[in-house]
Amino acid sequence: MKTGIARFTTVAALAASGGHCAGSSHASATDVAADGAARPPSDSPTSDDDASADAGGDAGAVPIDPSVLTLLEMLSPPTLPAPPADDTDRFADDPAAAHLGQELFFDPAFSGALLDPDNDGTAHTLGSAGQTGRVACAGCHLPAAAFSDSRSLGGGISLASGWGLRKAPSLLDVGQDKLLMWDGRRDALYNQVFGPIESPLEMNSSRLYAVEVLASKYRTEYEAIFGPMPAFDDPQSFPQLAASATGCQQGGVLTPTCTGTMHGMPGDDAEYSGLSPTDQQAVTLAVVNIGKAVGAYERRLTCGQGRFDRWMRGDASALSASEERGAVVFVTTGQCVRCHSGPYLSDQTFHNVGLTPAQVNFSPPDDGDHGAATGIAAALADPLSTQGSFSDGDDGRLPTTIPPTFEGAFKTPMLRCVGGRPAFMHTGQLHTLNEVVAFFNRGGDRPEFGTSEIKALGLSTEDQSALASFLHALDGPGPDTSLLQAP
Ligand code: HEC
Ligand code: HEC
User: Fold this and answer.
1) Which has the closest alpha carbon to 213: 126, 300, 131, 290?
2) Is the dihedral of CA 245, 250, 252, 257 positive or negative?
3) 309 FRET partner, CA 20 to 30 A, in 68, 327, 350, 375?
4) Which pLDDT tens digit goes with each residue over 101-133?
């Protein structure tokens, strides 16, 4: 503790003196070493165990020199940037839209029947097979689990109508992201909602049913924001779908596609296909607006600054010695900042880290998954994308070509509040941060597709556990409590 304060004082003084500028860095680093303050936590006189454990490796002595400090400052600016303005969605920061979006996020009324017989009505499920109206966004993005899924059995992947293949990502700070999903196949919060609504494994519903529920429950509020809503609840104008008739009716679905017909959406050869193109357009637009409302709410979900940031501002007691050491390893020998960079600890792009998909829970392993190579291709082909007519503008967020490195690559997750997530990686197959660190330390495993960018690190066991404790220190206060339930 004493060592920590002394060392941190030196770090803060360095920052104040601008010692991290390239020109002066060598002299400053020497000064720090000379006064004995800038030593790794393991050099504390009280931690002989650490010192001897480190003797076998060379990662023990990691002085916080100015270049390291510069790297740490990039992870912790004095204030965290708000979600960037969104040219594709003019309601992105509309308070009334965010209020409606919060209601919709917690409302299960939009969902069709639960299909998988694993839905046995226990607390790990959202109800019993055959029941309708059980699945809200919040059913898999739980406020208490950093808006990830701690409800489904095993805490890895989600069981809603059926079992999915990928883990529900945390939604904290999702407003920072432009390319969404683990593989980038959605490029805006407003079009992302079509995924869960129309997936037979998630809400098992459809855009037509969604607007009918919207009309019956939220017409006034919707119209105050988005203008007049067509008569979606008038059977003369739109065929009315029962909750049990939306989406897929084929029970026992264990694969990502419905074995029968999805009703109420494009390709149903029935209720939706029978609508005039104008009416189809009106239905889709209303769901886009649902997405804009939900997106405005999601942009408010933030982790916020926590102990790491307090430590960077000079509160030496905010981090333990191990957490301090982990911070240094993160930006140096651990090489984590190669990808986990910036204030949210993500470069917001896609990398192949050599994960071999494993079976998680009762779902088959997520194999055959090419990641961003197919995800970005899907986004480019999506009529709902930011390049299409439902977008309020195209800010060029979609790449024009798909680089070969996107083969087998997944999105670098942001890491603020990472300790609150129930499982890790896109498959949810790693259950502790220690396992994640061990994974990177061994150079990953064997990617199913493409080439891994990860090489073995050879970190000492101390450095590995320090890294894991640092990750836990990336906690924060989370969103305002008023955002954690239906308004
Ligand atoms: C069955 C569980 C489930 C439900 C219900 C669900 N989600 Fe998700 N969500 C997931 C999973 C799993 C992923 C990642 C899927 C992928 O990458 O293929 C995801 C991804 C996302 C993402 C992208 C996050 C990122 O970091 O890229 C957003 C945003 C999101 N969901 C919002 C919602 C909203 C809004 C709803 C309700 C309309 C919803 N989800 C309903 C499981 C669910
Ligand atoms: C080459 C880029 C790259 C490097 C280097 C890297 N990561 Fe990652 N990290 C990723 C990607 C991409 C994922 C998601 C991979 C997946 O799900 O298939 C990930 C996942 C994670 C996760 C899981 C988060 C979640 O929500 O599932 C943690 C924690 C993490 N990394 C920490 C680290 C640490 C600590 C280091 C340094 C030892 C590191 N990463 C190095 C790109 C990288």
Assistant:
1) 290
2) negative
3) 350
4) 999 999 999 999 999 999 999 999 999 999 999
